[in-house]
Structure formats: structure tokens, C-alpha cells
Amino acid sequence: MTHTIIIETQNDTVFEQVKEFAKQLGVPFSEKHTDPKEAHQQEALKKFFGSWEGEETGDELVDMIYSARNDQPRDVEL
User: Out of the domains of life, which is the source (predicted)?
Assistant: First the structure.
């Protein structure tokens, strides 16, 4: 059985101490560093993901999008 501990800190010293402790114990570990701006964007995506509410089915939405496109050939003079 694998156990996972997630340590969230912005303090580099604390992070290095925890990492060094894991090394001393001989425990395998992995690191993941996240930019705070990227983390905020990920949280916003999770918050709104799947939140669309409407009467249309997915296929109907696709049809609406395709029918709203205006993709006509244009005369272009060079």
C-alpha cells in the first residue's frame, strides 16, 4: 500500500528541510512546484468546469456553433 503526504509551502527553507528529512529516511519522494498564478488558474478551471446549464444537448450545441459560423469565400485583391 502506498501512502501519500502533500506538503504545501511557499517557504523554500521548510521545503528543503522536509525534502532532506525524506532523504534521510530513505523514503522515495517526488517534487512538484506550482506557480501561484497557475494554481489560481487551475482552481478557477475546476470551479467552472462542467457548470454549463442549458436545455440543449451536447450535439445540439455543436450544431448551433457550426451553423453560427460565417465561413464564406471572399474576393481578395492582391
Answer: Bacteria
What does the alpha-carbon distance between residue 8 and residue 15 come to, in Å, rounded to a whole number?
9
CA atoms within 13 A on the CB side of 52: 8
For 26, list phi and psi in degrees, rounded to 5: 75, 25
Q: Does residue 34 contact residue 43 with C-beta atoms inside 8 Å?
A: no
- As a whole number, mean pLDDT of residues 27-48 equals 84
pLDDT for 17-33, tens place per residue?
999 999 999 998 888 88
Rounded to two decimals, the pTM is: 0.43
Report the distance separating Cα 23 and Cα 3, nearest Å: 16
| Separation between Cα atoms, residue 15 and residue 65, nearest integer Å | 48
The distance of Cα 59 from the centroid of its chain, to the nearest Å, equals 25
